[in-house]
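During the first year of the project, the team set up a workflow for recording each protein of interest as an amino acid sequence followed immediately by a discrete structure-token representation. This format lets reviewers and collaborators read both layers of information side by side without switching files. As required by the reporting guidelines, we include two representative entries from the current panel. The first entry is reproduced here exactly as it appears in our internal archive.
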Amino acid sequence: MAGYAKSEAQDWARETLRGQWTTLMTPFTESDELDEDGLRRNIRHIRSLGTRGAGCTWGMGEFWSLTREERTRVYDVVADEAGGEWPIGAHVTHTSARETQYLAEHAESAGFDLLIVAAPYFVTKTERQVIDYVGAVADGTSLAIMFYNSPQFGIVMSAQGLQEICAIPNVVGVKEASFNQQLSIETHLLLGRESIISTPDEWVLFKGKELGFEQQVMFANTSDWRFDTPESNHYVRFIDKAMTGDLDEAYYDDHIRPIKQVSDRWWKRTVQKQNGSLPVPMVKHWGELMGMAGGSVRAPLMELSDDEKDELAGDIESARGLKTGAARGNA
């Protein structure tokens, strides 16, 4: 169970949500079953990079494709691997308010530290609906909540709407992943002193230095396990330093920018191919190239073609200067 009272959620978050947090993918076996052993190996590998915490069953975790039993089983496996020593967050959004409450209760009982809540996609068309929905979820849990602002859920909240969400007592902040840079900046400037605002991309760090704001956590992305190995964890090191105000641009240029340019190019290409969906196929295959368990994506997502996989592997090898997959084997 989380080691804080509901009234202490913001203080807990200020202390704990720091540095690099990861987003876990959900690996599947060849028969399209949850790959529990692979998930455990992935978590152990990510922890070895120095990553501060993790979130599961988010967009990159294909939550929308999971049955209730699969989704809660992922919670159980992640909580077991964390062992109460590694902070973890569970994404619990669902179109059904009752199902969201069920998932929140399961995550809390399993030992998760916080919840991630987004708009209840499909019928949610107004900001008031989202605010009321998050308030209802917050009323039913003792855990801290980070709101996830993303177009993947059918509505993007304004900075003013996010301000109302952050006024809910145990909502501690926002993962501002709208892909709208101006909205991210506005949200940081409006809410960043009272709430934890995190845009999960490095551009915001350089813009923050220019405009006079900082974020304390990279909450959360896949860049740690796509870019780093235990022997060469430049991304995690850079983020940890940057989150304390030490933005080392030369280090970023030398060790991260080349691989980030590959990532940005393939991210955009895969999103365009899927007409706006998150690039889960690209990210999952990238993980496999790094020796992690991934497996296929679930329909209706489309796999990368064999030619695309070969091209991606070549681009990664060129940027990193070493053979992908040779970093750590399959352990």
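The second entry, processed by the same pipeline in the following quarter, appears below.
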Amino acid sequence: MADDEPSIECRPNGPLKVQGLPLTRKSPVVSEHGEPLSWQTSEEITDKDRYFLCRCGLSSDKPYCDGTHKKQGWEAEDSDPGPYDDRATTLGGFGLTVRDDRSICVHAGFCGNRETNVWDQVSHTGDTSVRVAVIAEIEHCPSGALTWRPDGTDEDLEPDYRPGVGIVDDGPLWVTGGVPVALPDGTVLEPRNRVTLCRCGASASKPLCDGQHKEIGFSDS
């Protein structure tokens, strides 16, 4: 990858080196019942050309790295999970095909509400209003665990996201726009329009987030 191109590099047992990407804070807009409805950019953090982000979860200067990973002997054990197509399960649908990869779910909560969820709705997508609702829920999924494609096509339709890194409150790093993410051994993960990277240090699928921040009660305050 050229030095002037947007990129993310996982340092061995260390932080993420981010090149050429704006850093913002992303927060969910919720209903009166606490259900996520949409995303908002709540803070423009930096437009520096290069910075290093904590992913051990121990830095006292979050979201930036302060070197604590070295003092604590933190180990990342990064690996490439392979293509989304190989991991995803087809849920079906009418007028569209919905797919899902539970291994990268970050529990953002956009895939359902108090009354229903994507998995229950898929079989009712013959109803246009249900189909529209399912598409909206899928497109708010930050990790890209859920995807959809119209009938008769073999390519997922994705939201129009610009390259960037979003800090999700008490959650992962939300990378958008197909930014390449390189592992310490030089392997580049499959570029995707939406991907979430672990920053609590506990994911078993590093560098990807697997939702463990919820289990351990990670806080970035």
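For the second entry, the following points were noted during internal review. Residues 7-80+159-216 form one domain. The chain has two domains: 7-80+159-216, 84-150. Both points are flagged for discussion at the upcoming steering committee meeting.
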